[in-house]
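Module 6 notes. Inverse folding takes a fixed backbone as the condition and produces residue identities as the prediction. Think of it as a translation problem where the source language is geometry and the target language is the twenty amino acids. Below is one complete input and output pair. Work through it position by position during the lab.
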């Protein structure tokens, strides 16, 4: 671990106050950005999307569960995969405990994957996520929101992801989308974020940014190579 310059308590306090001023500036900028995000125009959905759920066939409107706002995690889990994406699992580890709190603020949550429910349910049960998770198999939902790519798209060497045309190594991609429903029942797409934008839910990263080693990913093959399913870490059996 790199040890930075040492300081007396007085010098540390002066440096900390200087950093605090920058942190407050960042907080104000983040609040401004959040207001701009909420001010984006909405797109009314004209296509009817349906999904397979444990209870049977459900619509996108059903995923709102009587609320006016819906957050969807686009969970990378394609048909025939043995397991869902580890990074998306890391995301859902953070989403799952927030569901009750989101519901208290008129927000529903659902995870959506293209894998069939017969493949989703055992994986969900294994990792213990008590969330609404549905399958978009047979639906255009994933393709329309640019988190799944058909073979002919992959064959071109570039797909539409994160608001640009770019190469992508997989036929499934991560993302978060937000929807709204008005009093008349009309549905709207209000926001989607992809790539590093999904870090908004990854509170572990925010905490790692506080500690001396930070995320400590520079020497890894790729940034998130350290992430495991939460039951696959060496310490998992003894964690409390």
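Target side of the pair, the amino acids:
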């Amino acid at each position: 671990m790199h040890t930075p310059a040492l300081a007396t308590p007085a010098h540390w306090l002066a440096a900390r106050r200087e950093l605090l001023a920058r942190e407050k500036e960042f907080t104000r900028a983040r609040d401004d950005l959040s207001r701009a995000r909420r001010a984006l125009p909405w797109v009314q959905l004209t296509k009817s999307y349906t999904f397979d759920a444990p209870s049977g066939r459900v619509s996108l409107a059903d995923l709102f569960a009587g609320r006016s706002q819906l957050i969807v995690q686009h969970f990378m889990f394609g048909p025939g995969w043995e397991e869902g994406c580890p990074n998306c699992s890391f995301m859902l580890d953070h989403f799952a405990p927030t569901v009750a709190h989101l519901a208290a603020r008129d927000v529903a949550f659902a995870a959506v994957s293209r894998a069939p429910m017969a493949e989703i349910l055992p994986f969900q049960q294994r990792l213990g996520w008590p969330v609404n998770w549905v399958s978009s198999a047979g639906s255009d939902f994933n393709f329309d929101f640019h988190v799944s790519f058909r073979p002919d798209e992959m064959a071109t060497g570039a797909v539409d992801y994160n608001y640009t045309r770019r190469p992508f190594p997989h036929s499934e991609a991560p993302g978060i989308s937000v929807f709204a429903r008005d009093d008349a029942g009309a549905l709207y797409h209000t926001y989607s974020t992809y790539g590093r934008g999904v870090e908004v839910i990854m509170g572990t990263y925010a905490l790692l940014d506080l500690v001396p080693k930070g995320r400590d990913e520079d020497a890894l093959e790729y940034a998130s190579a350290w992430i495991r399913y939460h039951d696959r870490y060496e310490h998992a059996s003894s964690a409390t």
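Reference fact for the lab report: Residues 43-201 form a domain with the Glutaredoxin fold (CATH 3.40.30.10).
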